Amino acid sequence: MVLLGNLTASPAAAVIRQAQRADGPASVLAIGTANPANCVLQQEYADYYFRVTNAEHDTKLKSKLHRICKSSAIKKRYFYHTDEMLRDHPELIDRTLPSLDTRMGIATTAVPELAAAAATKAMAEWGRPATDVTHLIVGTYCGAHMPGADVRLASLLGLAPSVRRTMLYLNGCNSGATALRVAKDIAENNRGARVLVVCAELTLILLRAPEDEADKATLIMQALFGDGAAAVIVGADVNRGSVECPLFEMVAASQAVIPESERAAAGRLGEDGLLFRPAVEMTTLIRENVEQCLVEALAPLGLSGGWNRLFWAVHPGGRAILDGVEAVLRLDSEKLAASRHVLSEYGNMSGPTVIFVLDEIRRRRGELGVGRDGLGVLLGLGPGISVETIVLHATGNY
Ligand SMILES: CC(C)(COP(=O)(O)OP(=O)(O)OC[C@H]1O[C@@H](n2cnc3c(N)ncnc32)[C@H](O)[C@@H]1OP(=O)(O)O)[C@@H](O)C(=O)NCCC(=O)NCCSC(=O)CC(=O)O
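Above: query sequence and malonyl-coenzyme A SMILES. Below: predicted holo structure tokens.
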């Protein structure tokens, strides 16, 4: 017996505990992404939005949205909602009507289905049977059901009934990074664990008609956000000769909140759906604090400063956010090329977006700023303002 304060640790228990832990670091083993079919070009978005919201008479506001769309650095976005769906549900557009039930009703099936489309791709790349998934983490801001989208998703994918599920609701744009951080801890603390992480978001939950000149936040949301889902398989201790192929080792993960920024990215679920308002100050707060957050996360690992040595998967919350991060970290222009590419092709899809960025980095086979030692940072940004930092090592097995 070993006495630790008033606790008694038995060597037998310690051996059992040790045997449950993985030896190696958690790794990203596969990535899959999916989007709904309805694609709207950004240059046509202002016309589209003011038409479907029956607000075409408001030409001043429409040209304001057109200007914001033009400077957004977004080319196109995908949406689950269609003209027909909006015609059938006027409550989604009319701000005076309650619409939460309609939005949640559609999300009940649409979120797990989009999540399944991304997960199926990740699992096909992974190469092992669905029943080998031991843990499932699902993130979404679209819905708040019991049981959640995780149960429906597990059934769609044919996961084992014993799969250990974790549901992350309303974590905002950092949910992709948050889910990966939790998956890392699970994989490293449960020998043999294979964690399926899936984030799926539909802007249907936050679609609303324009109000007036003072309501710029609505225009910003409508101009930037799109629908998408992304999935990752995370696991440690890949056996030699196995079908599995580690893409990125997860070296370290941390989270911080920017001081006094609670109101800068705030939302609430109400009768009119999800009202989320990133404040004008969000860009400045990130710009002024991101380097300090990174120093605190990376200095203990001996990695602080010299940011151009690393590759970067930064959440593309908006063009101005990427410009701010690039300027303050003095990054070479190719370092945020993957983030800018994903913003341009899909807009801000909230949680899944940073996983799309990681996928883009591996698809371009290291041409996007992966240095000789292969180290990089996945940076999640969301309400809080939360800053998620995951240090990755690109294995080169793309
Ligand atoms: C939207 C933009 C592309 C527009 O760029 P522009 O170059 O056109 O010009 P700009 O920045 O001056 O903005 C145009 C007009 O919109 C206003 N404006 C800008 N951001 C605003 C905001 N968040 N709320 C309300 N108004 C806003 C400006 O004051 C200006 O008004 P006027 O014309 O009257 O002077 C850029 O501002 C941008 O990328 N902003 C960051 C968007 C953001 O906050 N993303 C985070 C989403 S949340 C997220 O990702 C994570 C999460 O929290 O979950």
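The first strand starts at residue 2 and ends at 4.
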